[in-house]
Structures are given as C-alpha cells and as structure tokens.
Design a protein that fits this description.
Helix content: 40-55%
Oligomer: single chain
Number of domains: 2
Largest sheet: 5 strands, mixed
Strand content: 5-15%
Shape: globular
Structural class: alpha/beta
Radius of gyration: 30 Å
Order of helices and strands: HHHHHHHHEHEEHHEEEEH
Distance between the termini: 103 Å
Length: 308
C-alpha cells in the first residue's frame, strides 16, 4: 500500500513537471510568433536601430575620399594622422588579407558596411581615442561591431606588416640605419632609446600596488628604440614596480646579444678612434656605457646645445 502511494506521488510530480515544461515551450513559441523575444539587436535588451549605412558611406566618400572631397588633404592628415595615399594603401592591403573588411550583401539584399567605414572606425579609435558612441554617430557601427572590427584590424595589421616591422634589425637594416645616421653626423648610431610613462587610469585594484610609480599612481612603462623613420623595433612594456629608466634597462632584453657576443660588428671612426659596436642616443639618466651617447644636462656653449 505504501509503495503504491509513493508511486502515485511520483507520477503526479512528473505530470506537474511535464505540464510546466509544456507551458514554458508554448509561451516561448507565442512570444516568437508575436516578435516579443528578449534579444533585440546585437546586445540583449536593446532595440534594433536602422543606421542607414549606405547613406553614411556616400557622405564619408564625399567628405574625404573622392578627388574633389569636401575636406582638403591637410584636414584628412589631421583627422587620421596620415596622408590619404597611405590610408588607401593600408585599406587595400587589409581587404586583400581579410575578406571581413570587404563590402558584402546581407540576407535582405542590402549593402553591408564598406571598407572605408570599417577602417575609419579603427583609425578614429586609435588616432583620436574616440568612444564607441562617437564612432556610431559618424561611421554608423554598433558598439559590438566597433569592437569586433578593431580586433580584426589588429590581427590584419600584424599579419600583413609583422614580418617587416616586428623584428630586430638584421644586417641589411643595420647598414641602412648606419648610412642614414652617418649622413646626419652620427656615425655608428643605431637609434634613440628612451622610456615613456603612462598613468593607468582603469588599473585593476589587485594590481595597483605593484604598479605604483610616479605621483603614487599605477603607471605603465614602455622602453622603446626608434629609428629616424619612426620604426620602433624594440619595445619592452609593462614592468611592474616603482621604476625609472635605469631599473627598466636591467630587466630589458635589449643588450642580451651584446653581452653574449652575438651582436653584429661594424667598424667606424670618430675623432680618429676606431669602434666596433653601435650606440644609442639617450638622456643623462642612463649609465655611462660605451653603447650610450648621452646628451648634456646643462649645455654651456653653442656646440653642446646643438648636440643636445
């Protein structure tokens, strides 16, 4: 008798659970039928926005990219931090590398976002630190599209130009750098070495203590070597702790080849003295090594002022 009552109770509970599932499925089907899904647009809870991307593309072309555009060349350079020819060159390379940036037709037969809209979005964020909302106002890209577009742009640039720029100078690069430096009166000079400091405004609380630097605020340090043509071929980034340029140079891998005897040798003369290793231009805080040529902290004559 007791087993019969237990079985009956289990059957009743199973029936209730089954009925609840049926009601849930019916309510979901009704909401789908009436277009009442909670997922609206690219982000949950937001409604669909008609962004008129075709009209935006036509306006953008008239503003900047046709032969007689509304804004002249110097305005284009000020907005994008580059010449229009360079923009077009990068655009063609990126489109050929990743078809995500090519213009396509969507399921409704409408033209998708153009390559000019996508690259303008990426360059505006990189060059002018624009927010996603301001990108939407001019380029007509939703927030999620702007972020995806920027990530794809990063990967495309790395894939296209990484082999050319993301490497240490080889012998041919060194010869080119040394020739240019020699013409400018600095025989044997490889590049300019310095550290830059940025306050990390949105640093995680758990990391803030180990990254406190200048002004007792979280700071990120970048050690970089740049050549005359703005090729930054060395970048040592994000050393934790309260550091200055000297602390960072001890942690950096910049001089590992020199210390281990792997650095390429080249001979040149300065003031009658023969040298076999290149050097970097630095400021006065760096140690007195043969690979550093430092500026004068307090130049007291015309020659020293010119050199500094």
């Amino acid at each position: 008798m007791q087993m019969t009552q237990n079985q009956a109770r289990i059957e009743i509970e199973d029936a209730k659970l089954f009925n609840a599932k049926v009601e849930l499925v019916n309510s979901f089907m009704q909401s789908e039928h009436h277009g009442e899904s909670n997922h609206r647009g690219s982000i949950t809870g937001r409604s669909f926005v008609q962004r008129d991307r075709e009209e935006c593309h036509d306006r953008m072309m008239k503003d900047c990219f046709i032969e007689r555009s509304r804004f002249p060349a110097h305005d284009f350079r000020r907005q994008f931090r580059m010449r229009r020819e360079l923009f077009e060159s990068i655009l063609n390379a990126v489109v050929n590398h990743d078809h995500y940036f090519a213009r396509s037709i969507d399921a409704t037969g409408r033209q998708g976002l153009s390559p000019h809209q996508k690259l303008t979005s990426a360059f505006c964020m990189l060059a002018n630190r624009c927010s996603t909302d301001s990108i939407d106002e001019y380029c007509r890209l939703a927030e999620s599209t702007v972020i995806e577009n920027l990530k794809r742009f990063y990967k495309a640039i790395q894939g296209i130009y990484g082999a050319t720029y993301l490497h240490k100078p080889n012998r041919e690069d060194l010869k080119r750098l040394l020739r240019k430096a020699n013409k400018r009166g600095f025989p044997g000079m490889i590049g300019s070495l310095d550290c830059m400091y940025w306050e990390w405004k949105n640093c995680l609380t758990a990391w803030a203590g180990q990254l406190k630097g200048r002004h007792n605020k979280p700071t990120i340090i970048l050690e970089a070597v740049a050549s005359y043509d703005t090729w930054i071929w060395h970048a040592f980034f994000g050393t934790p702790g309260s550091n200055n340029d000297i602390n960072v140079i001890w942690s950096s891998l910049l001089f590992d080849n020199v210390v281990n005897g792997w650095a390429p040798e080249f001979r040149y003369k300065v003031n009658g003295n023969r040298y076999e290793l290149g050097y970097y231009l630095t400021d006065g805080i760096y140690p007195s090594w043969s690979t550093f040529v430092k500026s004068f902290s307090h130049p007291d004559n015309v020659k020293k002022k010119l050199f500094s």
